[in-house]
Specification:
Strand content: 5-15%
Number of helices: 10
Helix content: 55-70%
Shape: elongated
Oligomer: single chain
Radius of gyration: 24 Å
Strand order of the largest sheet: 1-2-3
Distance between the termini: 93 Å
Order of helices and strands: HHEEEHHHHHHHH
Number of strands: 3
């Protein structure tokens, strides 16, 4: 009589941990609530869970997985802290590809664990000097779109890079968004305003573009997405965080403009 081999059943605690780790990585990389929740449900079901319940707040993430069999009925629940880490679209794309491979049966449980751990270990940001330089260039490009002349573009590039350097220094020292937004907008606009005043014929374009790197685009987009998908609490939290940053920008800009006259 021939014996048919069956694939080993993945323990429920492994399903729970893998689902939670993937969801935590997505949440901290800037994914919206609906996208993270849907991905976690797909991961758990691809790994063998019969039922999945997900709870996501602004700073916490939790999941409950259930497996009902003829001989037993298992349910496990776990929560993790999920502090905000900023946007990391490379990680989001990697998790999406990993999930596709998991659903297509291209990864076994051990390979899935190793690959997810490798995604989590990847550097989350480019070097600070590279980010600072590119932020300055991007704001200089905005000054060009606003009709600024060459000196205005150069002044904006230098000023925005200085503001970004200040932002990095304060974020690394764990200052709150309202503080680093105020300080960075003040330094960025002040440096840009001084340079543009002496060398540019279009200083208004330079000043307007010098603080655009602080606009919280990802939280605003995710907040709107959460509201449209019925995640009202998370949507309001993201909008509140964005409002705090925008208020800080306004304070810094006001102080710099008073100094510049």
């Amino acid at each position: 009589m021939q014996t048919i081999a069956t694939a080993p059943v993945l323990p429920l605690d492994d399903i729970l941990n893998l689902t939670l780790e993937a969801g935590l990585l997505m949440h901290q990389s800037g994914a919206g609530t609906h996208r993270t929740s849907a991905a976690m449900q797909r991961i758990a079901k691809a790994l063998g869970a019969a039922r999945v319940e997900v709870m996501i707040s602004s700073t916490n993430i939790g999941v409950s997985v259930e497996r009902a069999e003829a001989a037993s009925h298992e349910t496990l629940t776990a929560f993790r802290k999920a502090p905000h880490m900023g946007a990391n679209f490379a990680a989001l794309s990697a998790v999406r590809r990993w999930l596709h491979q998991l659903e297509q049966g291209e990864l076994d449980s051990q390979s899935a664990k190793l690959q997810l751990a490798e995604i989590a270990r990847r550097p989350t940001h480019y070097p600070r000097w590279a980010i600072t330089t590119m932020v300055g260039i991007s704001c200089g490009a905005f000054a060009a779109l606003f009709g600024g002349d060459i000196p205005a573009i150069l002044a904006t590039t230098v000023g925005a890079a200085c503001g970004m350097a200040v932002r990095f220094a304060l974020v690394l020292r764990h200052f709150k968004p309202s503080i680093f937004a105020t300080a960075a907008s003040f330094v960025g606009l002040l440096c840009t305003g001084v340079l543009a005043h002496w060398f540019s014929q279009t200083p208004d374009a330079a000043r307007a573009a010098s603080v655009l790197f602080l606009i919280p685009g990802v939280p605003l987009i995710n907040g709107a997405s959460d509201l449209l998908n019925g995640n009202y609490l998370n949507g309001m939290v993201r909008f509140a965080m964005s409002a705090v940053i925008i208020f800080g920008i306004a304070v810094g800009v006001s102080i710099a403009l008073r100094i510049l006259g």
